[in-house]
Amino acid sequence: MKATALCAALAAAVLVSACGAGGRPEGGGAGTEAEVGITPTSVKVGAHFPLTGVAAPGYSEIPTGTKAYFDFVNAAGGIHGRQIEYVFRDDAYNPTQTSQVVNELVLQDQVFAMMGGLGTPTHSAVLDHLNSEGVPDLFVSSGSLLWDQPAENPMTFGWQPDYEIEAKIIGQYVAQNFPQARVGLFLQDDDLGRDAEIGARRYLENQIVAAERYTPGNTDVAPQIAALQAAGADLVIGFNVPSYTALSQLQSLRLNYRPQWIYSNIGSDPALVGSLLARFSEGAVTDAGLLEGVLTTEYLPGVDTPDNPWTQLFQRVWDAHGGEGELTNYRVYGMSEAYTFVQALQAAGPNPTREGIVDAVERAGGSFTGPWAAPFRYSADRHAGISGVQVTRIAGGTTQNLTPVLVTDNGDAPIREATGAPTQPPADGIPDVQPAS
Amino acid sequence: MVQQTDRPSTRSAPVRERRFRWRPRSTFARHGLAVVIALVVVVLVLEFTSPFRNSQLATMSYYAIAAAGLTVLTGLNGQISLGHGALMAVGAYTTGLLLGPEGEGALPLPLVMLAAAAVTALVGAVVGAAAARLHGPYLAGATLALAVAVPGLAIYFDHTLGGEQGLRIASPDVPGWFDATIWFLFAHETPSAKYLAYLGWGTLLLVLLLLANLMAGRVGRVWRAVRDDEVAAELAGIRLGRVRVLAFVVSAACAGLAGAVLGVVVRLAAPSGFTIVLSLGLLTAVVVGGLGSLAGALLGSALLVFLPPAVTNLGIGAGLDGTQAAQLAPFVYGVVLILVMLLAPTGVVGVLKTVWGRRRRTR
């Protein structure tokens, strides 16, 4: 117990001596500190992804793609002489854990910016934190409208087409090409389903006979599929994540229910859905054959089009800098985000600051070109991502385009065809954007 | 099941009196002194560690509050609960509803936290009333149902509770007087992360003080009596049902407070944050630390918070890529758990006590 007494005495001594600090000096501390996460030779970016747990299949591949592209850029000398250091951490798709790992990234790793953090519930846990700390929160990997609130969240930017515009484009396609169809909606019961329903009803209000919602986590979708069948829906639009594509397919197979299926882009990756089908059916269904003839949308080149120059670039990058495994659509997604980030960093100029990169994306982001099919909607008062998709059909393990790229915006903005030819990657595979200021 | 657990010893009390004569006589004063010393240590640690360590300590504080409550229930009263994660959810959601996403026009934070504890205690009373009739695996099953059902409720009432995306919770601003005091003492700024750590640890110390007194007093003796031999306890005139419900209520109130701290630290209450994994994590913390001891609950919570990132960073240091390193953490965690169960079933505190006892005997 002497030790305790000693500790107490010591603590008291420290307290007394520390009290000498006294009052606070006025107006101090506004020096010209170096920007957090930036050195003359490096820039550090962070991200959170589900690397373990239920959401890990597919999504855990995205940061490996991003990292491979950054390594490719670093091997070519980096951006303005800086190597990009990319740190991604596991949040297991649990918002409590997201908040912990983002603390680690911001406070411990001292990242300059966040890039591509994945998930709506997970990322919304750190939205306020990143904005109040003034950390650029670029290109969130989710189609929620939450990332497009520049007045409230000035540091946060969306990236992929939001669910509302995707649903609008699908809705118009169905109204034009299946005017007699009795339409059912199969929706995830959160922003994903809600935003999508708003978009779809804009064109299909009179055709919709049922809207069924499932709760993520509950793997029994039999009631929903049976209700769609009972309502006589002969065309079902699904806004759901990949595992629910597999579950809805298996369930409709069981009920001998054969509507025309249309899945949103996030739920339709044939390779992942195929492997999930095999797992859920315990081997009874072995590939994505069930998805034959299913309609979906696209806004990035896929690995099923090896002749696309962008796919060729990404294949080259993956072969040179990738880890284990093949190039997948998820890795293409990660590389495309990385490609956008490189443009943002170039636009921020040779001496990037946190404010500066946000400013640069607002000024120049609308004209960034890359693998994405339609332009971004970035401006000083919009932080919304890619503005369009094209409708495609899955056939023979690849996809056929049914429409040209269609672009639109939220609300009652009209849908029109994208102008301009498809973009070509630069010869060296690295974008070249001039400083925006 | 409970018979094998380590029982806090009360035998050596007379010896202690002689050894440490300078210690205050009354239990309350002794615990109070310990808390004051702990408070000084906490202040020093928080002031001289990095903001990231502060945020980790804030995380540890809410695990520890809940684990301390669970220790009282499981270690002292012999009731098992797999539903404490759900009770934390009740506390977090109550906090979220009362504070709101902007925090404007809201009640003062201490009041909100008390309300969270009170609401959760009420839920605990209901669950406890059901639990008092159940034993062992049946009780585990019933509380497991709680852990599964409560996050579902949040999704069902999505208009008030925010569904899958959850309720955003305003993080409290650092009060001016607090900031000024810290500046006066240490000439340090008080960023939000540090203030949250103070909030969490302040609450934790208060909870520990109350629980330690409860355990040392008549209530604690009654709880232990019920745990050790319910027939004897009943013969002695103890009403088992009432005692069990009370234990559940106290434990639930702690979980509610922990949920409130979690809410303001994480700034969000979402169903995916309160899965069965959280409940199991708390139970793990209690068991690994040492069942029935508050210090054990503290140690176990530290393990929950500090082990996974340490393992991940070791993995990255050893040349694994990010994904592999992330997968290493749950694996190592499992291995540690199995090793503790095999080699030290009384937990860390149990081992320390054994070692201490041996040293004293050989002197």
Characterise the protein shown here:
The complex is a heterodimer of chains A (437) and B (363). With 437 residues, chain A is an alpha/beta fold. Chain A is 38% helix and 16% strand. In chain A, the strands form three sheets. In chain A, strands 1, 2, 3, 4, 5 and 6 form a six-stranded mixed sheet that branches. In chain A, strand 7 (183-188), helix 8 and strand 8 (208-214) form a beta-alpha-beta unit. In chain A, helix 3 packs across helix 13, helix 7 packs parallel to helix 8 (191-204) and helix 10 packs across helix 11. The longest helix of chain A has 19 residues, at 329-347. With 363 residues, chain B is mostly helical. Chain B has a domain at 29-275: ABC transporter involved in vitamin B12 uptake, BtuC. Helices cover 76% and strands 1% of the residues of chain B. Chain B has 16 helices and two strands. In chain B, helix 3 (51-77) packs antiparallel against helix 12 (240-266), helix 3 (51-77) crosses helix 14 (294-317) and helix 14 packs antiparallel against helix 15 (322-343). The two termini of chain B are 34 Å apart. The model of chain B is unreliable at 1-7 and 9-13 (pLDDT under 50). Classes of the chains: A alpha/beta (437), B mainly alpha (363).
What is the fold's blueprint, element by element?
The complex is a heterodimer of chains A (437) and B (363).
Chain A: H1 2-18, E1 38-39, E2 42-49, H2 56-59, H3 62-75, E3 83-90, H4 95-108, E4 113-115, H5 120-124, H6 127-133, E5 137-140, E6 156-158, H7 163-177, E7 183-188, H8 191-204, E8 208-214, H9 222-230, E9 235-239, H10 242-254, E10 260-263, H11 270-280, E11 295-298, H12 309-321, H13 329-347, H14 354-364, E12 388-395, E13 398-401, E14 406-407, E15 416-417
Parallel strand pairs in A: 2-3, 2-4, 4-5, 5-6, 7-8, 7-9, 9-10
Antiparallel strand pairs in A: 1-2, 11-12, 12-13, 12-14, 14-15
Helix pairs in contact in A: 3-12, 3-13, 7-8, 10-11
Chain B: H1 13-19, H2 27-47, H3 51-77, H4 84-99, H5 109-131, H6 136-156, H7 158-161, E1 167-168, H8 176-186, H9 192-216, H10 218-228, H11 230-235, H12 240-266, E2 268-269, H13 276-289, H14 294-317, H15 322-343, H16 347-362
Antiparallel strand pairs in B: 1-2
Helix pairs in contact in B: 2-9, 3-9, 3-12, 3-13, 3-14, 4-5, 4-6, 4-12, 5-12, 9-10, 9-12, 13-14, 14-15
